[in-house]
Automatic annotation (TrEMBL):
GO terms for molecular function: kinase activity. Residues 301-345 form the Carbohydrate kinase PfkB domain. InterPro entries: Ketohexokinase-related, PfkB_dom, Ribokinase-like. Gene3D superfamilies: 3.40.1190.20. Keywords: Kinase, Transferase. PANTHER family: KETOHEXOKINASE (PTHR42774:SF3), PHOSPHOTRANSFERASE SYSTEM TRANSPORT PROTEIN (PTHR42774). This is Ketohexokinase. Pfam families: PfkB (PF00294).
Amino acid sequence: MSTPVEPASNGDTRPNLALARGPFQERVTRSSIAAWENVLCVGIACVDIVDELACFPDEDSEQRSLGRIRRLGGNGANMLCTLSQFDGAKSSLMFASAPRESDPNVAFVGDELCRFNVTQVPVLIKEWKGTVQMPTSYILQSRLTGSRTIIHYRNIPELTCADMAGNVDLSTYTWVHFEGRSGPDLEGMLRASVHAGCTISLEIEKPRPPFDMLTLLRYCNVVMIGKDFVKAQGFAHAREFLVNLWSQRQTLGIKLHAKIVLPWGEEGAFGIAFGENVTRDEAEAGPEIIYAPAATLDKPILDSVGAGDVFNGSLVVGLLRGQPLHEAMRFACNIAGGKCTQQGLEHLTKFVSEDKRGL
């Protein structure tokens, strides 16, 4: 494969922009994602069945739904449906798929990915613990509070190293994003992506015992860590967790220039951009915690489902454009906040022009 070449727009190669050091040129600040960028996500595609309710029901009660929507869901699918709306970004989703003849939702998932211009890399699963079906989430949305409660059904296996080796050519991708799901196989896929010279991002949404997901940080350039995972580690807030993580940076083998971000809902987002050599004085002072405030909304929250995935996709957009981490985080907070004021993931670019903070 030939190496893509694009002149640097301003010659800026500051360390905090040096995400890609494989066969691809370093990213520099630009107004849009470079044409040679190509993102692969290894994750999940599922069907969301969303019922809007006046308020969350009591146990053993009856309530009429105010409306029902069927739409594409899954962390990876939602993230790429966000990414693909910016700058014509090229992206592909590798996901486990049931046979078309066993589940009509297969066709629905495929049609929706096409509608968002996401290339499909389905891994066909014909047999696994009975009839294989596409994962489905049943979601109850409360109009009163804007909260959502999710019941997830899954009868399909996690993807494996063999699935990746047999279905994708990593040399054609510049960035690979992973949902933090199956630990041992995920580690093998991360190793393969490192070997291919890709920039790697990882979402750690929740604990996956007995596997320690933090051992995977050594492979990653960008990591998004969810609130559920942080609290399961015994930390009440993002700042406490990041300080502890920073103190373990050498033990965990965190990469030079790695970026770790914790989206924290209505409180905004917190992160660290790991630097090079840390002097004794800096070590005693602790890390510099980067903070991005949540978007100020001029409309009520209508649909928070997938907001975290929108944050992750928007964060990758900012970093692909070469933005410093604090700018990419603010951009992601703004897009994710705007998404909460509408149903679904369509037309997210309209929230860029509404940002009054100069992004």
